[in-house]
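User: Show me a protein chain along with its predicted structure.
Assistant: Here is one chain, sequence first, then structure tokens.
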Amino acid sequence: MKKTITVFLTQAGVIRNILYFFAIFAIIFKPENSSSLNLEGLHFIPTLVLPVIAPLLVTGFFLDILMSRIYSSEQSEEIKIRFKNIIRVDLFFALLLLALWVPYMIAM
């Protein structure tokens, strides 16, 4: 399993890996739905920065899905399988971000 993840991350590329890292960061540090805005210290990151970054990440994932579909449409079967896996991971992160952040945005 560890080898599979390593191969996937290698095939995904640096920019997608950065996108995955920021998505995991936004998921882990998501504030409570009832939390208020905090502007002191590093506590402003979950309450001020992440609510701005989360929708941008979702948009980035959907754009990556679109571009992956376009690029893989005229490629060999091996590349199509690779991009199909990338699309699945992108869709997973996009839906997870939506499921976690929409209630927070509504509560704002």
